[in-house]
Amino acid sequence: MEEYKEDNNEECKQKYPNFYLADLFYTLQLSNLSLNERNEALLKLFEEIKKNNMYPYYSYVCGELNLDMDQEMYTTLKQKADEEMKEIENKIQEASENFDYVDTKNDMLLTNFYCKIGDKENSFKEYEEVYEKGIGIGVKLDILLTIIRISIFFNDINSTKKYLEKARAQMEKGGDWERKNKLKIYEALNYIMIRKFPEASKILIDAASTFTATEIISYDSIIFYVIILGIMTEERTVLDKNILNSSVILQVTSSDEDLYNYIYSFYHCDYRTFMEKTIKIALRVKKDRYLGRHYRYFIRNTRVRAYKQFLEPFKSVTLKNMAYAFGVSEDFIEKEISSFIANGKLNCKIDKVNDSIESNQPNERNTVYQDTIKKGDILLNRIQKLSRVIDM
């Protein structure tokens, strides 16, 4: 009977896929890239592809970016990859003939090879086959985490969701501390991809102090996300306690002046500085593989939060004073506020006679009271209808 030995399998867990390639691939999709920047990114991407004979990924890149494939390069990469695969198959065959058990490390050689060369379909197929065999919980979780990374690498939202659900279920059977923390980061990145920012923010704030998932993203990037998502979704008390005064986060922001001043100016209501820093931070957001797809949403919603925060203490404020506070023209602030009022983002109105903005911030206690009364009326109506049915 075959016995499967559990192995840490560091190559499977850590090294592949290489997200440096995914970042370069995303950069090449940016519309405002200069010719020099594009050529430099292409050169770096092809260098990485050649290192690991990634002929399937080379084909994928050429197709997605509408590049003319260098057939000679493709053939060379495939020949070298085929030679490596033959060696792996021989090693697996030799192990199966000489031993009465299958070592997980040997069993994973082919799966890791497909992952290394960027062959998504065969990676999924091979990892699934190993997963279905009688291996330990630890290796099963490593396989699921690797498949999730491959899904994120190829921006496959559906597969990411599917395998995150499987990983959560498997984790309940006995995942260790490190794997749980990695899964949290993967979940947060998925939430960012599908624009569930509140969920992502809460996970990342909680996981920042125990971050270990360097195989998929850098720690500095995690802190960048914590601050961006925090401004878009978190209450001021959370910003103060868990971000501005967090020693873990300060270790990164202390050497990143723009990022620190961005959240500091927002929290301390220095709106002129906030608007200035927004321009610089927005450029970084646009170039980011996870946040870049939400660039316009980020621009709109961070400004909306700043406008709401500014208007909250006032019943009325002049356009001139608000424009001065934000360091912009009166025309700009009027167009901005008008647009956000029309979209239902701001609860106020513009008085053109007095050139002022009249704030109509909802009273939370009154809103809860009215909602309770409304639900009570609905309940009474249902009870009355039910009593009529019973009487009949």
From TrEMBL:
Pfam families linked: PCI, RPN7, RPN7_PSMD6_C
Q: Which residues form a coiled coil?
A: 71-105
Entry-linked InterPro entries: PCI_dom, Rpn7/CSN1, Rpn7_N, RPN7_PSMD6_C, WH_DNA-bd_sf
Keywords assigned: Coiled coil, Proteasome
- What's the domain of life for this entry? Eukaryota
Which is one Gene Ontology cellular component term of this protein?
A: proteasome complex
Q: Where is the PCI domain?
A: 196-364
Gene Ontology annotations of biological process type: proteasome-mediated ubiquitin-dependent protein catabolic process
Name this polypeptide is given: 26S proteasome regulatory subunit RPN7, putative
> What is the species of this protein?
Plasmodium berghei
